[in-house]
Specification:
Nucleoside Triphosphate Pyrophosphohydrolase, 6-stranded mixed beta sheet
């Protein structure tokens, strides 16, 4: 079985007295189905909403990957605070060899430091459709993947245990 290792970030920013998290809508290629004659066309599936993340490059530490991926996929720079969790799951590649893959994604709590969300390179526009700030209180309901919803809950617990982060 193939193995993959990735890392990503929960980038938090306090604005107008509330915490927000940087999220992305990745470009997802979906097969275009033609409706059968006499049937109504189905609504397109809802957009995927996810945390920024990506593959760990050779020689890179997971925390470095999280910081790099956040900058590449969102346009912002962030400061690491703590590791939140490792998410582990299986998936089947829908390209190439269609291999079954065991994947581990390490997520880090990060604080926004600079940059404009959505200011990403033309090359990254192939991967990322949109980046935006989402109210942290809404994120556990809006994110598409259950593992990432769990990571958001850990970030909320961390904030409650460390109120001094609001002053950083």
């Amino acid at each position: 079985m193939e193995r993959e290792f990735s890392a990503g970030g929960v980038v938090l920013r306090k604005m107008r007295g509330r915490w927000f998290v940087a999220v992305i809508e990745p470009h997802m290629e979906r097969p275009k189905k033609t409706p059968k004659p006499g049937t109504a066309a189905r609504k397109p599936p809802p957009a995927i909403v996810a945390l920024p993340k990506g593959a760990i490059d050779k020689g890179e530490k997971p925390e470095q990957t999280a910081l790099r991926e956040v900058t590449e996929e969102t346009g912002v720079r962030a400061e690491p605070v703590a590791k939140l969790a490792d998410i582990k799951y299986f998936y089947v590649r829908n390209w190439g060899d269609h291999a079954r893959v065991f994947k581990i994604v390490s997520f880090y709590l990060l604080l926004y430091r600079s940059g404009r969300l959505g200011n990403i390179s033309r090359e990254m526009r192939i991967e990322v459709h949109k980046a935006y700030w989402l109210a942290l209180d809404d994120a556990a309901e809006v994110l598409s993947y259950s593992g990432e919803r769990d990571v958001i809950q850990r970030a909320q617990q961390y904030l409650k245990a460390h109120p001094e982060l609001a002053r950083r």
